[in-house]
Amino acid sequence: MSESILDIYKRLYRAYGPQCWWPADGPFEMMVGAILTQNTAWRNVEKAIENLKVAGVLCPEGLRDLLEPDLARLIYPSGYYNVKAKKLKAFARYVGDTYQDDLDVMASVPLSVLRDELLTVYGIGEETADDILLYALSKPVFVVDAFTKRLFYRLGVTNKIGKYREYQGLFERSLSPSVALFGEYHALIVHHTKHVCRKIQPLCGSCSLLRICPLGRRNVMCETPDFE
DNA sequence: GCCCAGGTGGGTA
DNA sequence: TACCCACATGGG
What we know:
The protein starts with a helix and ends in a 5-residue tail after the last strand. Strand 1 (212-215) and strand 2 (220-223) form a beta hairpin. It has a domain at 27-136: Orthogonal Bundle (Endonuclease III, domain 1), CATH 1.10.340. Helix 1 (5-16) crosses helix 12, helix 2 (27-36) packs antiparallel against helix 9 (126-136) and helix 5 (68-74) packs across helix 6 (81-99). Residues 199-223 have low confidence and may be disordered. Helix content is 57%, strand content 4%. It is mostly helical. The structure holds a DNA duplex.
């Protein structure tokens, strides 16, 4: 019998404390950050966001008015700058066409409608859509990333690496729908993988107490916190 | 020099 | 549906 989803949350929270995500000045900056951080270290995203701020274009209209090559130059430090420039332009166009840049109106749309809508925008996949829904628009959706899948597989909560929606359903069935809880949980998982999964350990099959999660594509093993 | 980071879209079988 | 691959900088 594996630990419950809620128990694991409590353990992570006890170990690391509140994460208070998402780090951004306002919902639109948060949305931009969600696109820029795709498969990218956050420190690189921060540089790109700072460039956008200094250039005064960190708003839907600003992004729409920029030429794509100029936008690509500004977000250069975040990597994948050509595709991400396309993605940001597409997203800014969507916000303008659909909501006239009014994010309060956007936030008033029902969750499932908004999610489907976001998924039609170029560059917005399931995780980015859910990041935006949860952290910018305060919708109670659970954000799943590659680490979440691997961590909970390794913890024995799931018996195989499943699909995004399977994990999301698992978390959303196991927890009460709370924006604060979902936001903290995802942030704690990311924090754990960033700050603790650095301790590379060989997998010890004989130690039943070793709680493990793989890090990255090479399936490196490490311990999860045990701060009881 | 190698590996990885708060993914997504497009192509192929 | 399930894989593969391209996309790219910057830090450990």
